[in-house]
Structure formats: structure tokens, C-alpha cells
Amino acid sequence: MEDEKDLKPAEKKKIKEAWVKIQQFLFGLLDISHDTDKEGTIEDIKENISMKGHTAWVLIFSILIASVGLNIGSSAVVIGAMLIAPLLGPILGVGLSIGTNDIDTLKRSLTNLGVMIGLSLLTSFLFFLIPIFRNETPELLARTAPDVRDVFIAIAGGLALIIAISRRTKQTNTIAGVAIATALMPPLCTAGYGLAIGNLSYFGGAMFLFSINTIFIALATFVIVKFLHFPMFKYQDSAKRKKIAQIASFVAFLVFAGSIYLFFNLFKLNQFKQSAENLIADLKKSGISIIDEKDEDLNYNEKTIKIYVYGNKLSAEEITYWTSRLPKYGLNNTKLIVEQGVDSDLINEVQNLTELYSQNQKLISTRDESLKEKEDKIKLLEAELSKFYAHNVPFVQISKEAIINYPGLKQLSYSTQFRTNFKKVDTITAFNAEWYAAVKNKRKEELRFKKWLKTRLNLDTLIVNGN
User: Fold this and answer.
1) Please, which pLDDT band fits residue 123 given cuts at 50, 70 and 90?
2) Where are the domains of the chain?
3) Half-sphere exposure of 195 (CA within 13 A, CB side)
4) Residue partners of 119: CB distance under 8 A and separation at least 6
5) What is the Cα–Cα distance from 93 to 104, expressed in whole angstroms?
6) Cβ contact 113:90 at 8 Å
7) d(C-alpha 202, C-alpha 373), whole Å
8) Torsion of CA 67, 70, 72, 77, to 10 degrees
9) Which of 11, 92, 93, 341 could form a disulfide with 49 if both were Cys (CB 3.0 to 4.6 A apart)?
10) What is the pLDDT of residue 119?
11) Burial 196-214 (b: 16+ CB within 10 A, else e)
């Protein structure tokens, strides 16, 4: 028993030492303070705030490339544009300046952020004013409304960006990756598209998405700046310093409170839509036919869900039953609106369309058969013509060539003969050659002439008569 008592403290000590080692390992694994270049980070961020000269032109051309990519629905082109777009500088400047009480940098960052937004909207607006580039694409429509997941992307992207920049050894691939992931540029292009076509809902939704990304990237920068204890900007006047610190703290509080409010609203909106979609899915599983589902039918602000039913109408009892089940889906204080049209007209229309389709299919089938018969006849006639032309001799040309090669020919004629052994009929080309009496070795000339004709006409069977 005494040995066991002696072992217990030793075991406790070992466990404690192991736990300390685990803590040290985790701290060393996740610690970012020892490898942070604070002064270099501040300098890098301030250098990339400005939106003028070369940077402004790079922004304009990258917005143009992204607009083209959204117009043709090419994700690859949009990603390429995001890689070269200098959008993150002013946003990082806002987060840094609030975190370090640098009011001058804050003013400069906000000014350049406004310039960046203005140039981007103007470029995309002018591009989408061209009539041939005004068609809606899935890439454009995907940026007209924010989602709660966009918040997580912006937070994670902002944290990754400021941590990567704060290293002594910069990681440009991380910066490029964050530029792609946070997707600041496509919403600006979509907002310009909304202005070009006069659709303010597209404009508002896209700008809301851009604002969310901007706010949460700036907020992530502010958090890391405070966590790593970046040096505060120093003012000679202590009273001014205190006032600036109060203003910066107030602005930080407003940004943080606004971020929480935006996140909460987006979370509730996403939750409402998900619950509504679950309800509609269960309605369909129960045998209720629902058509014309649109996003605007799920109204979070008015707390209404509108469905369009065709086929068998829902009775008042069924509507009451499904309305009573709304709280079970987390849809408290939500109104279910059921639109039921004239079912018979819709069914008759569907039946008419079905019959019309069936008739068209029969007509197509009949035409196919008729075309096939005609094609068979054409092939048969082509075969007969090929047989005819196979034995057709260009006699005028042959006679001209023959008199040049064989001056002893006095007269030449040809005909097509039909020969049968009473089992099959063969068609044979026959030539009749008359030679001058002065021709020597007439037999030899006739053989040469026959050989030449076979080669010239490419015929295996050929009759040549001479006299």
C-alpha cells in the first residue's frame, strides 16, 4: 500500500509534465507573435493604400477583365482578374488605422476606398452599358445577394491575409488566395451591371455583399493588430492623443457592433430560407404539386412563404394543418400563403401540349420513313448511273489521242455490246479499228493499240476488231 502511495505523486508529476509539454507544443505551433515584423507590416500596408497612377489603371483593367468574365460566365477569367486587382490595400489600411489610432491613415484609407469603389463601379457600368454585354448570367446573379457563409469567408480571409502580411517573409501566394476567396471584385462588377440595366435590387444586393466582405476583412485586420500589440501612433499633444484614441475606439465599436448586427441578420435570413425549403420539400413528399418556386416567394422581412399549387386543390383543413406545423420548422410568426389557380385549365393545357407533342412525333416518324425510302431510291439510281458511266467512253478525246499515237489508223469506231451465257449479262466495250494498207506489222500495231486502250480507259475487258 505504501508503494502505491509513493507512486501516485510520481504519476501526477508525469501527467503534469506531459500536459505542460503539450501546452508548450501547441503554443509554439500556433504562436505568431515571435515571427511578426510589426514595423514592416505597417509600412507595407500604408504603401498599398493609394489608388492612383499605375494602381488605378491596374484596377480599371482588372475590373474590365472581371466584367467580361462575368458576362461570358467564365470563372477562370474572373479568378484571373481577382489575382491582379489591387482591392485589399485600402481595406487593410482601415483596419490598421483603427487598431493603431492613426487618424491620418484612416482618412487616407477611407478616401482611397471611395476612389476604388467609384472607379470600379464606373468601369463596370460603362462596360455593361454596351447592349451586347447586358445578358444575365449565373455568375452575375450569384453576386446579387449575400449569404451567411460570405461572412465566414471574409473573416477567415481577412485573418489569413493580415497574418501572412505580418510575417518577416512575405507570402504573396497567400495574398492572391485571399483576393480570390473573399471575392471583392465580382460584387462591384455586378453592382455596375445593376446600374447599367436599371435594376436597383441587383445594385443594392451586390453592394451589400461587397460591404460585408469589406467590413469583416477590416475587422479581422483590427483584431490581429490589437492581438499582436502593434505600436500605437504617437501624438505630441496628449489631449489630442486621448481624443483620437476615443474616436478610434468609438469607430471600432461601431464597426464591431455593425458587423455583429449584419452577421445576425444574415444568419436569421439563411435560417429562415433553409426552414422554408425544408417545409416545401415535405409538402412535395406528401403529394402536393408545387410549381414556380422563386426566391422572392420566401420573404424574410414580411415573414411569408408563398407556394403555387396545381393539380388537386388543398382543402381548408389541409392548409390549416400545414400552417399549424410551421413552428415545428422554426417558422414562428410566419404566414403560409397558398395560391391555387384554375386546375382544370392547367391540366387541360398540359394534356393539349402532350397530345400535340405526340402528334409531332408521329409526323416526324412518318417523314423519317419517307426520307429513308427516297434515300434508298437515290442510292439505287446512283448505282445504275455508276454502271452506265463506268462503260461510257470519251470517244472524241480518245480518237484525237489515237491518231497522234497511231498515224496508221484510217478509221475508228466503238460500241457497247451485251453478251450473255444465259446466266448473267455482261456489258463489253468494243472498238473497231481500220488501218491503212501501207501499215507494216499491222498485227503488232493492233496489239499495241489494244493494250493502250485498256490502260487509257482502265478496262479489263475490251474488244478491239481490226481490218
Assistant:
1) very high
2) 30-233, 395-466
3) 16
4) 51, 56, 59, 60, 63
5) 11
6) yes
7) 57
8) 80
9) 93
10) 92
11) beeeeebbebbbbbbebbb
Cell numbers for 183: 471575392
Q: List, as one string, the DSSP characters of 321-335.
A: HHHHTGGGGT-TT-E
Burial 142-155, CB ≥16 within 10 A → b, else e: ebbbbebebbebbb
pLDDT (tens digit, 9 = 90+) per residue, 194-242?
999 988 888 888 888 888 888 888 888 888 888 888 887 776 666 666 6
Number of DSSP helices (H) and strands (E) in the chain, helices first: 16, 7
What are the start-end ranges of the H helices in 102-237? 103-129, 138-141, 148-165, 172-182, 185-197, 200-227
pLDDT digits (tens, 9 = 90+) for 139-175: 787 777 776 777 788 888 888 888 888 776 665 555 6
- The C-alpha atoms of residue 388 and residue 395 are separated, in whole angstroms, by 15
Local structure of 444: helix, strand or coil: helix
Rounded-to-integer distance, Cα 186 and Cα 192, Å: 10
Concatenating the DSSP letter of every residue in 63-112 gives HHHHHHHHHHT-HHHHHHHHHH---HHHHHHHHHHHHTT-HHHHHHHHHH
CATH class of segment(s) 30-233 = mainly alpha
As given in the structure block, the three cell numbers for residue 448 are 499495241
Grid coordinates belonging to 372: 429513308
Number of residues that make up the chain: 467
The cell for 12 is 501526477
Please determine, looking at this structure, whether the domain spanning 395-466 carries the CATH number 2.60.120.
Answer: no
Return the half-sphere exposure (C-beta side, CA atoms, 13 A cut-off) of residue 46: 14
Helix H or strand E segment including 405 = helix 395-405
* C-alpha gyration radius of the chain: 44
Q: Give the residue from 411, 403, 453 showing the smallest Cα distance to 434.
A: 411
Determine the average pLDDT of the residues in 242-267.
70
- Cell 496628449 belongs to 238
Do 30-233 and 395-466 share a fold?
no
Q: What is the mean pLDDT of the chain?
A: 79
- Please state the φ and ψ torsions of residue 432, each to the nearest 5 degrees: -120, 115
pLDDT digits (tens, 9 = 90+) for 32-45: 666 777 888 888 88
pLDDT tens by residue, 74-119: 888 888 888 888 888 888 888 888 888 888 888 889 899 999 999 9
Q: Where are the beta strands (DSSP E) in 283-408?
A: 289-291, 298-299, 304-310, 335-340
